[in-house]
Amino acid sequence: MEIFQLEYITLITGGLLVLTGLWGIISQKNLIRMVIGFSLFDTGLHVIMISIGYIRNGTAPILDKAVDKVNAAGQIVDPLPQALVLTAIVIGLGVTALMLAYVVRLHKEKGSLNITNFKDLKW
Amino acid sequence: MIKKLIYILVLVGAGIIMAQLFAGFSGSTELSETARYYVESGPEETGAANLVTAVIVTYRGLDTLGEVTILFTVAAIIAFFMKTREQRDKPKRRVSEILTTGARILVPGTMLFGAYIFINGHLSPGGGFQGGAIIASGFALMLLAFPQANLSHKTIRWVESISGFSFVIIGVLGIFMAGGFLDNSILPLGNFGSLFSAGAIPIIYIFIGLKVGAELSNVVGHMHEKQKEI
Amino acid sequence: MNMTWIALIIGLIMLIMAFAAIYAKKLAVAIIAAGVVSLLASILYLTLAAPDVAMTEAAIGSGLSTIIFFYAINKIRKQSHD
Amino acid sequence: METIEIIGALITLAGSIFLVLGSLGLVRMPDLYTRIQAGTKASTLGTILTLFGLGLIHLDWMGKLIILILFVLLTNPISSHILARSAHYIKTPVSKLTKVDKLKDKETEKTSEANHTNPEDEL
Question: Domains in chain D: how many in total?
């Protein structure tokens, strides 16, 4: 069966995670739950990117006794998406921490976490 | 009610777009052209056994520099928002003695493990970001075990500034002594697969690890609120 | 073939945990569920032959991120008591 | 298949049996404290036995696995101790079968002492 492969399953999982995170962002009223939705969205995107870089039956992109220099190109998976995702995860943590700092600050100003109470910029 | 309908419509739209994108995907069985170049000429040019490290530190080194800058900005903004104020209300319960004793053993071990990970970044899985995150985790454990600890933001700032500065200096040295910015062949490449190999990659990764660790520790330390001594 | 089944099971648990992270009544449970999603994602990366990414996700996504979330809700709780 | 590998496999099997028993205790026990106790004790022993058995099968991994065993031995009891203590602090209900609560006795004792102001007893 064509669809029952590792990369397809992880790709679909990542896509559903992205949709779940999006649903959390747009439907929840609590600010912290929206931040959680953002982090789920992040995780889903990372899973999608890694599964796009997967080569069927490939091994990790690290050369050692099992994988030598000469015929490495036929054995290992794509190292480029992995490097991108590695930086993306760290930046994701920074963005999450920044959002949480804003949430704490907003709560200090208004005394509430409900998004409908913040109407200062609404016209 | 109508709001919920709009939400569901947005979600269905996003799902349709995503399904369209996924429909063209068929599992790849061989590397793309860029990846093939990295895999075939990476070990000779950089001398790193871990190809992800080679891509991060040398081929895409500028991205890493920008990423570290983003982290620095994030840490600065959080420090601006979360000015630690001395706690006014009554002190909490005493921290369990088992935790403080365990933390005295575990915190140095965790920091050492982080250092091990970013020193061996060019040989085994791991590197500056992972090691920095592990160092910050050890820092968080220390803050949990000793809530009234007087951590010096000054030291963290110095470590961060010096390592960031050295990172850029090594990058600029690459322009003069080798092929370009962040070229790692300013030092001899050495034996493939040994600890002292891969040119400047281990040194750059040590600086990245120290910088990321200092920045994440700064974030954790600013989110933590200092408590009065019991 | 074995890896495929493992990925299928882990993906199902991840989706359940993601729904728990959005719909759990208590905020602490939601944060823990989000951390579990990250931890399972790191196992998924390991099956996809990406050990570097798996280490990063395990250290950052399920470690530091959860701690920062808890610090934030601790601060918010203190502010609402004042 | 050498003898030492068979011994290692048997030890790993014993470890996995302990892990299964630990998860059974998690379902079976009445309240939070007994669940923490069952889970921690069984899973610590199970993890240690599993890692040690693996070390017997692959003798060259033994050094790293012993460091891992030490790490598990340090962290697992401490973390569950902190969990149980925090649960006691926020007054998680105990099961009806529980007769003794030493931590509560100690805390009430301490507060009554503090009311009677006896500075010599601080140590």
Answer: 1
Please indicate, yes or no, if residue D121 is contained in any of the structural domains. Answer: no
Q: At B46, which amino acid appears?
A: T
Task: Inspect the interface and report whether the beta carbons of D85 and B96 lie closer than 8 Å.
Answer: yes
Restricting to B residues 67-126, those with a Cβ less than 8 Å away from any Cβ of A are 67, 70-71, 74-75, 77-78, 81-82, 124-125
Residue D13 has what pLDDT?
92
- Band (pLDDT 50/70/90 cuts) for residue C1 is low
- What domain range includes position D44? 3-116
Q: Do C21 and A16 touch (CB under 8 A)?
A: no
* Rounded-to-integer distance, Cα A50 and Cα C46, Å: 10
pLDDT, tens digit, 9 for 90 and up, residues A25-62? 888 888 888 899 999 998 999 998 888 888 877 777 77
Asked if residue A1 is part of any domain, the answer here is: no
What is the rounded distance in angstroms from the CA atom of residue C25 to the CA atom of residue C30? 8
B45-99 pLDDT tens trace? 777 778 888 888 888 878 888 888 888 888 888 888 877 565 555 556 677 788 8
Best to test chain D binding among B99, B100, B101, B107 (most D CBs inside 10 Å): B99
Name the closest residue on chain B to residue A65, using Cα atoms. B193
**Chain A CA closest to residue B127:** A86
pLDDT at B230 over 80: no
Q: Provide the domain count of chain A.
A: 1
Q: At CA D103, angle to CA D101 and CA D108, rounded to 5?
A: 100
Contact status of D103 with chain B (Cβ, < 8 Å) = no
Neighbours of chain D (3+ CB pairs under 8 A): B
Per CB-CB distance under 8 Å, the chain A contacts of B4 are 27
CATH code for the domain in which residue A14 is found: 1.10.287.3510
Q: Are A7 and A54 in contact (CB under 8 A)?
A: yes
Residue B229 burial (CB count, 10 A)? 7
Q: Which residues contact D6 (CB under 8 A, 6 or more apart)?
A: none
3 state DSSP class of A76: strand
B52 near C52, Cβ under 8 Å? yes
Instruction: Give the chain D residue whose CA is nearest to the CA of B144.
Output: D82
